[in-house]
Fold each of these.
Amino acid sequence: MDCSLRDILLKLCRREDLTREEARQAFEHIMSGDASEAQIGGLLVGLAAKGTTVEELVGAATVMRQKVMPISCAAQDVILDTCGTGGDARSTFNISTAAALITAACGVRVVKHGNRSASSKSGSADVLERLGVKLELPPHRLTACLDRAGICFAFARYHHPAMKFVAEARKSLGIATIFNVLGPLTNPAGARHQLLGVFAPELTDRLAAVLRELGSRRAWVVHADDGLDELSTLGPTRISELVEGHVRTWTLDPRALGMPYARLSDLTVEGVEESAAALTDILGDRPGPRRDIAVLNAAAAMVVAGKYDELPPAILAAQSAIASGAVRRTLEKLVQYSQE
């Protein structure tokens, strides 16, 4: 039975969790232009104050997936995404973007979902645009780019037109809402393999469970002890791994892989120009902490995609792809085919 948005808001006022269907109905209302600004704000604040559940996230993500402008990919293809939530406030260079390029150069098909910066010095869209990638491409062009370069960039603002109905309310609220975690759950190509960094440790298990319910095949949802929403080289990282329908949580210490601890200052940038320069240095095989963390995350992405069973050989493959120039050529192809 359909619930009115008023009934759903009253339930949130009582700090009660929504069912999956109630969440789906609520987000269908607000993402179809059927809700007022006050109702949208009430829903978002109510969920934020209570804390979102797996069922609520699945219901909301289902609506966003239905309203996305899709990128066509063969159903049997392994498609990987390295999009994270952002929000770790660490001002690092675009680690997940570097990892996506390395992973694609190693033969994994990558549809990198991302947006302009909201909480960081440089969003994935910002840095790729600075490197020459054209952002707003129709889906058929992105499919062609993926086929020819092994990677394409799905610009979130372009692929989620229904977000226009909630944009003003989100801006007016000025707080983190459920939409901060929905982006990585709504890849336009329906990627079912993901390396997903999150801004809080309690989200790793939760989002791994959400991805399972949404049909993902394999995922690592990660949050580092130092606060990074990436696999970190500053210290251990908490990993909730989805594999064969089960979620297990474990900790990875980079020193076990022969990687020394870095300092946060080794990874930070002041803006888009510095982040683009960092990626260029990595692609040019400049050794150091930035290359190390990019290689570690790329290796994890390759394990998630099933390219390798373990991290050590994946690390060697990532290092080899950088040294051979394959990663640099992958970026050049992405730039070229995005502009044609």
Amino acid sequence: MNRETVTIVSGLPRSGTSMMMAMLEAGGMPVLTDNIRTADEDNPKGYYEFERVKQIEHDPSWLEDAKGKAVKMISALLEHLPQGYTYKMIFMRRKMEEILSSQKQMLIRRGEPADSVPDEKMAEIFRKHLSQVERWLVEQPNIEVIYVSYNEVLENPVAQARRVNQFLDNALNVESMVSAVDKRLHRQRR
């Protein structure tokens, strides 16, 4: 694996990015996290976040520490990735109904309003955003992307772990990656 490349795990909220980060870490890839946001009922194995990612528009200096590692970044921030780096991106996809249901359950558990935007409207917003992100990614010569379905990882973790490993230059332990997949955490089935 290229030690100069930054591996980005991205997608919509609740799309399986934390699971993919856990798979990469289990497979032997160093991950860039700060453990500020700790595991909870919504992500019992942790969020794998790095708070400085949220400041990328104004301070991308942390990317130097991300070389040769995987870092999680929500899709809304991708447009701020500086051109001076080479990225391999694992973009997580998940059935829209499951994303919306998982997001709603997380808001309810936190005591936040869960119905401020109807599901149909939120799905429309998310689909439009994904379409824009995918068009943008095609135009980025320094970003190589693989799209991975959360649902397919749960259905066939070995095949999906092999795909990801091949994308990352066969540098990871596939068996260990598969061991990080916990089907019991697929609670919002549709």
Amino acid sequence: MKICVIAGRYGLSGVPLAQYRLARALANRGHDVELVFGAVNSGFEVPFSQHFKILILNKRRVLGMFFDLVKIVKYKNFDLILSAGDHLNAIVLLSAIISRSNIKIACSSRVTPHDTYSDKKFSKGWILKFIMRFAMYRANVLSCVSKDMVAQYKNIFKNSKHVPIYNIIKDSESELKIKENVDEDWLVNKKTPVIIAAGMLEPWKGFADLICAFKKLLNHKKAKLIILGDGSLRGYLEKQIKSLGINDHVKLKGYVKNPLKYFSRADVFALTSHIEGMPNVLIEAMMAGCTPVSTDCETGPRELLVNGKFGYLVKVNDIESISRGLLEALENPIKKNILDEAVELFSEEKIIESYSRYLNINFNNK
């Protein structure tokens, strides 16, 4: 089968990484796969794969991909397109409608619709909602990465046919990355427990909350904090760490190519986001054996941690609650075999099985 997997941009966020894993999983099953990105963020490079083709359109905005996608749909003779992200989904569906193509299309939504759509007339979110209402009939499958998100989409779009399909997190390549060597002294020569966090250094990720909560934790327990990732708040967070007098206890490591190897050597993973879809990084940390502490934000963490069965849920933007959660996780870690039970839902086999069921395609047959 000839399959096109599409994402807007390749960078640090979970969407392009999840699409890359999806392309890899389908190629490993013998399909002819092409992975398409609108652009690649500065400082990043898409990993080469000998199993599938990679096409970069060099279009910084999703809207700019429209005419390229019309050509792809019309002339490349794909049997299936798998796209991710509401803005891109809308453009892909419009491309298929204009091309009068019969190609099968599966569109995945990765963030809560409240963060994407709007009722304010003529706003970007309002226009996108109008387009999706018109175009969503063309999708063979509309999916979300959490069950809570499905419920939200059904509230926004009447007669919505959204279904839950998770991202691939657990696969053989990811498990190999967990075992790679780490050159971080706090992890190699560990003398105190290490808490780790990762993501874009942006306001909605709540890293300022985490740093304040960590400062409070130090009154009760020795620990170190490593934050992986970069973003617009880096300077602000550096000043915060300095003002709190915890420079010797916190590192902003910046972007790392393989965060999984860091997760596997740390004790606790902290996610303090104010909003999420289904946080891939939280699942990756659990796969690597980190005890998770997560804010009970919309959407994803409560569903993933099953109301606290597989990790510690804390209140959003609540320093005291986050600090207590970190302390409890350090003193009462969750065993690896229990974490594996939760992560299994995000295995390559489970996700391909879900796509097979909803698309009525047997992906194990070429």
